């Protein structure tokens, strides 16, 4: 437009414009990989716009790779097998479950079970309590009880281990 005054574009103005541009997908993916997230999960997080959720869950202090697996693979697995809606997975549900894991209230194996229950409508606290991890002493007590109830298994570590795993699933 000839009636408007000329605008002088300085190097400072160009730099300011560059700095205000959003990051490229590849930059986000690279940052996730630097945190220890597998490349395919980093791509999925960026592609499915899960980055805000991921960043929020970093506050739980759980290792980034586990957060990534939980919000991608674990969630998809639950949706596929349990036929629940993706909308049932709230930031709060993830946060409470991951904080319970970080606080050693539940085991890593129990994360999926707890999230499944929460996605089906159970209160987070109730679900987490159901999968509460148990102490080494309690584990030893359970194993002793198995041997006491089935003395014929004494010395058969595999059979005892199988029965113990049945009882301790997700708690040890």
Shape call: elongated
- How would you classify the helix and strand content by structural class? mainly alpha
Terminal CA distance: 73 Å
Average pLDDT level: 88
Number of strands: 0
Q: How much helix is in the residues? A: 55-70%
Radius of gyration: 24 Å
Low-confidence stretches: none
Tally of contiguous helical segments:
10
Concise synopsis of the structure shown:
With 172 residues, this protein is mainly alpha-helical. 63% of the residues lie in helices and 0% in strands.
Features:
172 residues; single chain; elongated; mainly alpha
Topology:
Blueprint: H1 11-19, H2 25-34, H3 39-47, H4 51-57, H5 64-82, H6 91-102, H7 110-119, H8 124-130, H9 136-149, H10 157-168
Helix pairs in contact: 2-3, 3-5, 5-7, 6-7, 7-8, 9-10
């Amino acid at each position: 437009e000839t009636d408007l005054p000329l605008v002088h574009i300085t190097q400072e103005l160009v730099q300011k414009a560059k700095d205000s541009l959003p990051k490229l997908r590849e930059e986000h993916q690279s940052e996730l990989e630097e945190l220890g997230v597998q490349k395919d999960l980093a791509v999925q997080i960026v592609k499915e716009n899960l980055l805000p959720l991921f960043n929020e869950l970093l506050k739980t202090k759980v290792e980034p790779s586990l957060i990534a697996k939980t919000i991608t693979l674990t969630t998809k697995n639950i949706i596929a097998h349990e036929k629940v809606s993706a909308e049932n997975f709230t930031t709060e549900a993830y946060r409470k479950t991951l904080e319970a894991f970080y606080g050693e209230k539940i085991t890593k194996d129990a994360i999926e079970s707890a999230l499944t229950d929460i996605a089906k409508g159970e209160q987070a606290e109730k679900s987490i309590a159901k999968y509460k991890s148990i102490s080494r002493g309690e584990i030893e007590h359970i194993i002793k009880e198995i041997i006491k109830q089935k003395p014929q298994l004494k010395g058969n570590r595999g059979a005892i281990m199988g029965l113990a795993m049945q009882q301790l699933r997700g708690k040890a």
